[in-house]
Automatic annotation (TrEMBL):
This is Core-binding (CB) domain-containing protein. The keyword Cell cycle does not apply. Signal peptide: none annotated. Keywords: DNA recombination. Gene3D superfamilies: Intergrase catalytic core (1.10.443.10). It comes from Planctomicrobium piriforme. GO terms for molecular function: DNA binding. Residues 9-19 have a biased composition (Basic residues). Coiled coil: none annotated.
Length: 329
């Protein structure tokens, strides 16, 4: 004997369920209203074969839907008008300014900086600094915190946390990057009004920076005899790096990114513009620098990546970085 189908019973339950929630759904506020009330308590519309939701007409309280004041149709209609064009064209839906969260802002800021990094407009170090700053902002304010609800008191507390963690130089740099994140929101009209930081969320004064350098006891000034000891104790390619720093004023990142094409060993010149500003830097090379560079280039290891093959200095594939400790009397 064939089993009886239970389908009619389920259909009756579904019909009763639909009839039950339809009794409490809100009416359309005017005849041409583009949205319909959904059983989940939202206003919705089917666009391109997919249902999209815009605001709520009810919220669940103790497991039951309770209508919100005014049925929320005005906010839903405004959100629909903001997002419908992007939905039809397949673009990302814009976020209303009052709903922009800290996490969404940081994600958009990250994407903008990633594009500039991919285009070669900012360095890997700058991009990394921006990433760490956005991570810190999200960790402090929370991913779901609303940007429009941030107050000067919130930024004052953030500065206090940062000041306990870093010195005045790093603190000033981080404050500048935090400000740039929220300025991005205002510049791109992600929020209607700029974020107010207050009078306390500012970089430390230069007097504070100078005092910190003076009292920290970490001076970077070396005497001539100390520099000679440093050069004599260094092996290649470190000796060439030190001489380039003294000869041309190159810093760590200059040395790391110095291309072979910037060096003219026959004429004794280095022509290497500043990576960030592209300001020209031409410098005559000392005979000691030329000799050290020739030795360092002769023992230069093979590049592991093709894009690094044009660099002057490369790390050995397997060896760790040598550390030289000098006992200077």
């Amino acid at each position: 004997m064939a089993e009886q189908s239970t389908r009619p019973t389920r259909s009756r339950k579904v019909r009763r369920s639909k009839a039950k929630w339809k009794e409490g759904r809100p009416p359309c506020p005017f005849p041409d209203f583009p949205l319909s009330p959904h059983a989940t308590g939202t206003w919705c519309k089917k666009i391109g074969g997919k249902i999209h939701h815009f605001g709520r007409w009810a919220r669940k309280v103790s497991g039951k839907l309770q209508r919100v004041p005014g049925d929320g149709w005005e906010d839903a209609l405004r959100l629909y008008k903001i997002q419908v064009e992007a939905i039809v064209t397949g673009k990302p839906k814009p976020i209303p300014s009052e709903q922009l969260t800290v996490g969404q802002l940081c994600n958009q800021f990250y994407t903008a900086k990633k594009r500039r990094f991919d285009a070669g407009e900012i360095t890997a170090r700058a991009f990394g600094d921006y990433c760490r700053t956005t991570d810190m902002i999200v960790a402090h304010f929370g991913t779901n915190g609303l940007v429009v609800e941030l107050t000067p008191a919130d930024f004052e507390r953030l500065r206090s946390v940062m000041a306990k963690r870093w010195g005045p130089v790093r603190l000033g740099n981080e404050i500048g990057r935090v400000r740039s994140v929220f300025k991005y929101a205002a510049d791109y009209r992600l929020i209607e009004r700029p974020v107010h930081f207050g009078n306390e969320f500012v970089k430390p004064k230069m007097a504070v920076v100078r005092r910190h350098k003076r009292t920290s006891g970490r001076t970077k000034v070396l005497e001539a005899n100390e520099l000679r000891q440093l050069i004599a104790a260094a092996d290649q390619p470190l000796k060439a790096m030190i001489l380039l720093g003294l000869n041309c004023g190159y810093g760590n990142h200059d040395i790391a990114g110095l291309p072979l094409s910037a060096l003219d060993l026959d004429r004794g010149w280095s022509d290497f513009p500043r990576p960030k500003t592209e300001i020209d830097r031409r410098c005559p090379l000392w005979s000691e620098t030329l000799s050290a560079l020739a030795d360092a280039i002769a023992m230069r290891p093979k590049a592991r990546r093709q894009e690094d093959d044009g660099l002057c200095f490369l790390s050995p594939p397997t060896s760790a970085t040598d550390i030289i400790i000098l006992q200077i009397p």
